[in-house]
Amino acid sequence: MSDEKKLAHNEYLKIDSNYLRGTLAEGLADTSTGGLTEDEQQLLKFHGCYLQDDRDIRAGRRKHKLEKAFSFLIRVRVPGGVATPEQWIKMDNLASDFANGTIKLTTRQAFQLHGVIKTQLKRTIQEINAAAMDTIAACGDVNRNVMCNPNPFLSQAHADVLKISQEISEHLTPATGAYHEIWLDGEKVESTAEEVEPIYGKTYLPRKFKIAVAVPPSNDVDIHANDLSFVAIVEDGKVVGYNVAVGGGMGMTHGMPETYPRLADIIGFVTPDKVVDVSEKVVMVQRDFGDRTNRKHARLKYTIDSHSADWFLEKVNEYLGYDLEPVREFKFDDNGDRFGWVEDHQGNFHLNLFIEGGRVRDDGDSTVRTGLRKIAEIHKGDFRLTGNQNLIIANVRPEDRPGIEALLEEHGMLNSHERSALRLNSIACVSLPTCGLALAEAERGLPGVITELEEVIEEAGLRHDAITIRMTGCPNGCGRPFLSEIAFVGRAPGKYNLYLGGGHAGDRLNKLYREALPRTEIKAVLGPIILDYAKSREDGESFGDFVIRAGYVAATVNGLDFHENLKPEVTSA
Ligand code: SRM
Ligand code: SF4
């Protein structure tokens, strides 16, 4: 940390907050406004909530001099993405009783509720906790929901990986009593003398921190978007250890080249017994060396680039008191989900369902939410949220499968095979109307874009060819756009930067191809490239590899040259 530079405001806020209390309790009790002060909003994030307003009606309310239509987003942690049927039913109830009637499955395997008003916030959080879930550290300058390959049923290896994700999550959960005190009416800690945050300290981390655990050949957790990842090395069906990857991240700001997405560096290997220790020490190095003066430069990826990956490894080894072992070989094939039913070694069945944009709702003719609720009422296994915003109905006994299938049929959900592989490999962040940072549509925008592109896909005979396609409403990267083969990143209402050439396994960043492309021109610009791919691709060549070989965009190995290569003209190779 620089001695000369002034610390970011949030650093003082954290120090003065008495371990994340601040004036939150008072702010929540103030019924003269539906909102909170700026400082309270910042602290509230550590408790898993954001203050938002409905942007669809913001201008109208301003015109009538009304306060914004404030409500809260609640993010519910689901480590490794595993939830019980009872927890699903609880989320479904809360969606109706206190939120906007939908459940959002996030890109980090968590639940989100939108539209909870201030007076219902505490009650909703209490109900979430009563169902053995929580919201602490779902957001804020701490470790967030730990992601994990959501197929732990496939082998003992997968079970080990889920267990380790849950252990990391538990170990890195803030120790403060503030959460219990504010939301669960826990006993007030009168003196802070005994209260400590053994890992984080009083100022927590310089910025958010994200961890994922992957099981090759699937990179469905997108390790290159995480500050810290563990890649399972499996030998004879057993996890012998994990490669350690650090410094991945997506967020950037348009027009600020000093902000950029970055692929993670794979710096070593560790045996399973040391994974929690390594997580703790990586967090501590970032705690001590992360930039606390500039929040746009505070993620671990910048700490590493300000020094070097070798320096970072040395520091981690020093904090550990032993050295990470040399990296082991592994290979990722893709970062998508595998749809349809699979049977595991014990004869249980698991169904990966496509949930467009991760939004579980009844809408018009669609009764997906009702159908999933009815399934939860009879399901004896569990639900697994995937990092691609989809859902696995997991651990279904053979005798229970017909009942579940009948409900899926009744509610129109047995249709993965009818969808194009392009749609099945899509991600859209939430964006408008709830996200305060959105510059353009994403969740509401991508389905229509895909429908248009599907006309080209059909013509090209690519219906079953997986091409990853992602849209975000701004460059913060919540749908991990910079790791997909095709990405639209919101610039302004109706305008997107188009990126091409990400690795099919999420292992190469894509490159800017068209800046501020009007939404209405997407098909005209992308269509010819898709047709060219169908015509000229080599055997087994992915779309991302093709656009580089054909010269649409240049190859890149890391994020440092990310902003280069804007082609003024679209050329058909
Ligand atoms: Fe995100 C901020 C939604 C995954 C990078 N993200 C936000 C906020 C809270 C907007 C805000 O700060 O006011 C969004 C709330 C929108 C809403 O109405 O729900 C938001 N992020 C989401 C979710 C819900 C998108 C989704 O459609 O699933 C994801 C919730 C994940 C979870 O369960 O924890 C979500 N966000 C991500 C990811 C992907 C990932 O983690 O795998 C990223 C990119 C990876 C990374 O962190 O580098 C991501 N979100 C950001 C950033 C940029 C951070 C940065 O380093 O610059 C912001 C803005 C910020 O922090 O200042 C942000
Ligand atoms: Fe909001 Fe931008 Fe994240 Fe989309 S990418 S949810 S628009 S912050």
Short description:
The protein is an alpha+beta fold and 573 residues long. Among the domains are: 343-412, Alpha-Beta Complex (Sulfite Reductase Hemoprotein, domain 2), CATH 3.90.480.10; 422-561, Sulfite Reductase Hemoprotein, domain 1 (2-Layer Sandwich), CATH 3.30.413. 30% of the residues lie in helices and 18% in strands.
How is the CATH topology of the domain at 422-561 named? Sulfite Reductase Hemoprotein, domain 1
Radius of gyration: 23 Å
- Low confidence ranges: 557-573
What structural category do the secondary elements indicate?
Answer: alpha+beta
Strand order in space, largest sheet: 1-2-5-4-13
Q: What summary fits the major beta sheet?
A: 5 strands, antiparallel
What is the name of the CATH class of the domain at 422-561? Alpha Beta
Query: What portion of residues belong to β-strands?
Result: 15-25%
Question: How many alpha or pi helices?
Answer: 17
Total strands: the figure is 22
**Overall CATH architecture of the domain at 422-561:** 2-Layer Sandwich
Average pLDDT works out at 94
Bound heterogens, unique:
siroheme, iron/sulfur cluster
